[in-house]
Amino acid sequence: MTSPYLSIDLEKIEHNARTVVSFCAAHGMTVTGVTKGVCGHPGVAGAMLRGGVCAIGDSRLENIARLRAAGLRCPFVMIRLPPLSAADQIVEAVALSLNSELAVLEALSQAARRRGRRHDVVLMVDLGDLREGILPDDLVPFVREALRLPGIRIAGLGTNLACFGGVVPSSDNMRQFLQLAREIETTFCMKLDQVSGANSSHYELIASGHAPPGINNARIGEGILLGRETVHRGPWPGTVQDAFILHAEVLELKQKPSVPVGQRGEDAYGETPHFVDAGNGERAILNVGREDIYLPGIAPLDSHLSIIGASSGYLIVDATAARGNISVGDRLAFSLSYSALTAAMTSEYVKKIEIGPGAGHSGPTDVSHGDPGEERPT
Ligand SMILES: *Cc1c(COP(=O)(O)O)cnc(C)c1O
């Protein structure tokens, strides 16, 4: 088996999806499973669908194309704003996209008409997180214009919080969102199918019972993939947090000083790190680096290990406390944050190994599953 690799437990993802779907269903919401964090990995999307999500949302056309090519049959949602330059591809690839620009809607309208199709859109509203979305005061005039466009149907209203500005979902901003939805429905005498106002950051608000009723769709990524809500990154109750584990191999293991020797300038990343002299220690060098992961987002599963740092291709681990238990060639295991997961999924140097029943039907695999070999801890 080559290393490094990411093990992907499809059964755990399916379990997480089922947990999130039933929680959301109990609060009147369907769930769109979001796969952008795993680069549209078909095995993961399949596990989400088995777990009951009603659609798959992704931010990249390449990912949606990969899912379709792998034979997944479900509604696909483009959750990143479509580029004006790609209106034709969007209409071709998905039945529904999230939008905030009239010029893009016009292009989508033309693209849909050329194909004799209808393209559904969810209009995004910015409630203060300052990522994508129409500002509340501009929404009514925007909808008035959008309704004139043939080939386009306004399927709903959406909003996204806790992403750029870290704005926490509250009963206030959710009430404002629901009021906007109602205002659109009454002003234009129309029914919005989707009031898509939740993501993984909404868990606590919903669980607390303070979420105003009316949101009927949640777009959930991290809650399913990593079993976490995203306001405090606490576990989403009933889910597991270890569906993804990173494994990297020890290339070198030596006693070395804790402070670099010689006059010092910048490191490989233009930084001047500070070192504390802790004497000599056992240092393991592993075959994964900043090119493959988000360094602050990984943590060794073995509590005797700690991360010292990384260059683009090497991870440097303090193995002093694990002395005698590690050898060159061993594989060490790490948990991943969402950012680290996305980086590892994007890196072509990190192999993706599906484990669990249903594994291996799609996506790249280079071993038969279930060979944890000498990785530790097990
Ligand atoms: C990424 C994304 C989501 C999913 O967010 P999570 O916090 O992973 O649940 C939902 N909606 C949009 C528009 C997104 O970009």
Question: Could you walk me through the main structural features you see in this protein, from its secondary elements to its overall organization?
Answer:
- With 378 residues, this protein is of the alpha/beta class.
- It folds into two domains: 10-225, Alanine racemase (TIM Barrel, Alpha-Beta Barrel); 244-354, Lyase, Ornithine Decarboxylase, Chain A, domain 1 (Beta Barrel), CATH 2.40.37.10.
- It is built from ten helices and 16 strands.
- The strands form two sheets. Strands 1, 10, 11, 12, 13, 14, 15 and 16 form an eight-stranded mixed β-sheet that branches.
- Helix 4 (87-93) packs across helix 5.
- The model is unreliable at 362-378 (pLDDT under 50).
- The chain binds pyridoxal-5'-phosphate.
Relevant terms:
378 residues, alpha/beta, TIM Barrel, Lyase, Ornithine Decarboxylase, Chain A, domain 1, 8-stranded mixed sheet, 8-stranded parallel β-barrel, 10 helices, binds pyridoxal-5'-phosphate
Q: Which percent band covers the strand fraction?
A: 15-25%
Number of helices: 10
Q: Count the E strands.
A: 16
Q: Note the main sheet.
A: 8 strands, mixed
Structural class call reads: alpha/beta
Summarize the topology.
Elements: E1 5-9, H1 10-26, E2 30-34, H2 42-50, E3 55-58, H3 61-69, E4 76-78, H4 87-93, E5 96-99, H5 102-114, E6 119-125, H6 139-146, E7 152-159, H7 171-187, E8 194-198, H8 203-207, E9 217-220, H9 222-225, E10 244-257, E11 280-286, E12 298-300, E13 306-310, E14 315-318, E15 331-336, H10 338-346, E16 351-355
Parallel strand pairs: 1-16, 2-3, 2-9, 3-4, 4-5, 5-6, 6-7, 7-8, 8-9
Antiparallel strand pairs: 1-10, 10-11, 10-15, 11-14, 12-15, 13-14
Helix pairs in contact: 1-2, 4-5
The structure holds pyridoxal-5'-phosphate (PLP).
Residues 34, 36, 59, 79, 98, 160, 199-201, 219-223, 230 line the site of pyridoxal-5'-phosphate.
